[in-house]
Amino acid sequence: MLTTEHLLLRAYQSSDDANILELYDTPAVQLTMTNHLNTPLGTDFIEAVFRPSTKSAYFHSIITLRSDPSVFVGVVFLEHFDNAKDRSAMYSLAVLQAHQGKWYGTEVTKVVVDWGFRMGGLHRMWLSASECNLGAIRVYEKAGFQKDWVARQENWANGRWWDCIYMSLLEEEFSAMDREQTASMV
């Protein structure tokens, strides 16, 4: 279990299923995070997609409020995709719309990035974000992720094509940022 100033990151429980469906059934989440058509999801999504991903993820947590752990905020993943030898993982974050704009994405990203490099032994974290998801891109840039490349017109959403931005953060970049933060505290 990890904590931030406002949040608790804990293991998935089957009692989270209704909240998971609410999160992934949100049009904005479907349009920016998934590669399937924006359609209502059912319990088959939990069984076929979500639960297996919690078992195969390098790191996976349910995000709740620290002050009230019964309040579901979102989910966060680090996934290896069969390249464990390269010590690289994909970062993925989804926050319920009701909890967006409260800096929770920034808090979670900072703590998971820290865990990934300090405890998880990662060398590289990477992610992709639709260009229309400006809030997410700002969160990732604050955490030190840099743009690597753009997949042009990769995401069809709201009647148009959107580019997908691929970003990464390397272990040595994280270490340099960490040293700068430590020096500024002295």
UniProtKB/TrEMBL annotation:
Record keyword Acyltransferase present: yes
Domain N-acetyltransferase: 7-172
GO molecular function: acyltransferase activity, transferring groups other than amino-acyl groups
Keywords, alphabetical: Acyltransferase, Transferase
InterPro entries (UniProt xref): Acyl_CoA_acyltransferase (IPR016181), GNAT_dom (IPR000182), N-acetyltransferase (IPR051531)
Pfam families, per database record: Acetyltransf_3
Family annotation (Gene3D superfamilies): 3.40.630.30
PANTHER family: GNAT FAMILY, PUTATIVE (AFU_ORTHOLOGUE AFUA_3G00765)-RELATED-RELATED
Entry protein name: Acyl-CoA N-acyltransferase
Organism from which the protein derives: Pterulicium gracile
